[in-house]
Amino acid sequence: HDVASLKRGEKMDDAFMRAMLGTLVVVPFVSPDALQRMMSEENLGKVDNVLLEWSLALYLLEQGVVRRVCPVFVGPVSDTATVTVKMANLFHAVELDSFPHEDNEPTFDVLQKFHQKYLQHLAAPQPESVRDIVSGIFRCSSECLCWEQLQQGEYPEEYAQDPSVRGQLCRLALDRTQAGLVFVRCAQNIRRVIQDALQEHGMGTDVAATSPPRIHIPLAHTPVAAFAAVQSEATTPLDRKVQALERRIDKVERELAAEEDRNEKTALKQTLRALQAKLDDLLLNC
């Protein structure tokens, strides 16, 4: 997060852009609010730091400086009095034609100056329209689709429509628990991406052994604790249990992908759900 990462008086844009230079994996957060802002024609006349981050991520990926861009896609959220928070599919809610087919000049100017200062050995970045940048991020393969990770369900009947403070707090607690699980599952997916990138880079596959982990996550927009599993060392019994479960889940997922027998696939899916539920319980209680 910004308070912990930035030094006093340091320019935020310069700091996060320099951090990306020493990164193998960039994890941009793609939210409806950020996209809504980019759709506005008025936004073309000012620097958009989120658009700047995405532009640099795609440029560094193209130049081979970054090995992976793995977005976390967050869909539009709605809630009612009787059901837990629901999240819609972001790709169904956003039309690429809604974004300006012209570049954001102030944002590109910052990117150009950064290139001149730190990256003159690389080809100069070319201006791209907001639509093309958003499209480029959307084309980055990612399993971090929060609406798929969010378990949909109803509140228990006894406080589903309870207007009291107790009812409100109970609903809030359930929503926070569900949101926490979403980011825990995203962290598991990101760990796999980091392992692949480390292996390609000749640094092995042990995420915890990499010091510091070479990953750029815009922590100002994330629950920091949810990503602790990505960067922590397995030094406690709980850590070791989590990592053992993750290895079992990986093994079952590989077996499921290779299995052709219908009955065996059904059994493996049940095993996978049971392991995932056990892992969720461990992570939520840590």
SSE diagram, text form:
Elements: H1 2-5, H2 12-21, E1 25-26, E2 29-30, H3 32-39, H4 49-62, E3 68-69, E4 72-73, E5 77-78, E6 86-87, H5 90-93, H6 105-118, H7 130-138, H8 146-149, H9 157-160, H10 165-200, E7 215-216, H11 228-231, H12 237-258, H13 262-284
Parallel strand pairs: 1-3, 1-7, 2-4
Antiparallel strand pairs: 5-6
Helix pairs in contact: 2-4, 4-6, 4-7, 12-13
Mean pLDDT equals 77
How big is the Rg?
Answer: 21 Å
Structural class: mainly alpha
Strand content: under 5%
Count helical runs: 13
The major beta sheet can be summarized as: 3 strands, parallel
- Straight-line N-to-C gap: 21 Å
Poorly predicted regions: 207-215, 219-235
Helix content range of the residues, please?
A: 40-55%
| Number of E strands | 7
The outline comes out as: globular
What's the arrangement of strands in the largest beta sheet? 3-1-7
Give helix and strand order, one letter per element, not per position.
Answer: HHEEHHEEEEHHHHHHEHHH
